[in-house]
Amino acid sequence: MDLHSVLDWLQHTGWAVGLKQSDFMFPLVEGSHILSLSFSVGMVMILDMRLLRISFRSQRVSLMMQQLMPWTLTGFGVMMVTGLLLFAAQAVKVYGNTFFRIKVILMVLAGLNALYYQLKYYPKMAEWEQGSTPVGARIIAVLSLVFWFGVIACGRTMAYEL
Amino acid sequence: MLKTLIDHFVQWCYYSKDYAFIRDTPYGVPSVQSLHLAGITMLLGTMLVLNLRLLGVGFRRLELPFLAEQLWPWVKAGMALTIVSGILVFLPDPTRYAHNGPFRIKMSLLCVSLLYQFLVFRRVIRTVPEASSRGRNVALSAMSLCLWFGVAWSGRAIAFFQ
Q: E-strand spans in chain A?
């Protein structure tokens, strides 16, 4: 079975059809997907600004992470679930959309960027978090802002026929 | 009277050449919409932090007046980006919005939100919530969240309802 027939099967499952045709559920799921950005990316922005020492300079990075992370992860959880539902409802069309593909690549890059931070800078945070942020961690913060803005822009642009 | 005024304004916008390039370039509207969504993410993300702290359910290791001092510039920056990009979405294509029900609800809610934000909320977040009753804090943050997320949801509804 090739990918196209899997996607075709997916968007013709009863619940995917139901979601796509519902006047109420589709806007609700789509609105939740977009507005949970405020929890996920909104809070990531604040952490990035701390790493760049633009805001919250007097606070330790570990404290900021500890306070922000539960909300960030909740936001990403809601985005993942609603995003998969939206994908299922229009699988063939969305899969073929160029901006969707760029968006997925950017999300992978943002994920790898965060993973690199967790492996390289997170374990030794106590050594630097009260002073200046290592250059590498600053670059990670800038890349994070760039990648997530790209994800937002591609997600929004997907809605247009281009 | 008001209707005639709105109609004249709408016609003026539509025939004015100044904003036509946004409508006439394929990436014009998607780009402005992407900035609009980035602004919304920044505004709602920072407003969430302040409200979650006011509610007493998050960010409890940071004092509210300190959060307010650090985040208020970003609240204003997100607000400015959202409003400017929003005007640039509206001006080239006013006929689509001026008579749209959700858009009118959105503009009305936006006016109330801005008044509440600058007359009430700005002062509230400069005081320590622990000094006031829980009921008062919950009511003040519920009002803020309902207003701003009300603006956002009615904005989303423009795409789905007349």
A: none
A31 with B153: Cβ contact below 8 A: yes
State the residue range of the domain holding A103: 3-157
- CA B5 to chain A, closest CA, distance in angstroms equals 32
3 state SS of B18: coil
ipTM for the complex? 0.93
Q: What is the dihedral of CA A12, A14, A16, A22, to 10 degrees?
A: 120
Residues of A whose CB is below 8 A from B75: none
pLDDT tens-place string over residues A5-16: 889 888 888 888
Number of independent structural domains in chain A: 1
Position A127 in a domain: yes
Q: What is the pTM of this model?
A: 0.92
The per-residue pLDDT for range A105-128, each reduced to its tens digit, is: 999 999 999 999 999 998 888 888
Nearest CA in chain A to B34: A153
Q: Is the CB of B156 less than 8 angstroms away from the CB of A34?
A: yes
- Nearby residues of A103 by Cβ (< 8 Å), 6 or more positions away: A150, A151, A154, A155, A158
* Residue-number span of the structural domain to which B151 is assigned: 43-157
Tokens 């939100």 locate to: B113
Going by C-beta distance under 8 Å and a sequence separation of 6 or more, which residues neighbour residue A27?
B156, B157, B159, B160
B27 with A162: Cβ contact below 8 A: yes
CA-nearest residue of chain B to A30?
B156
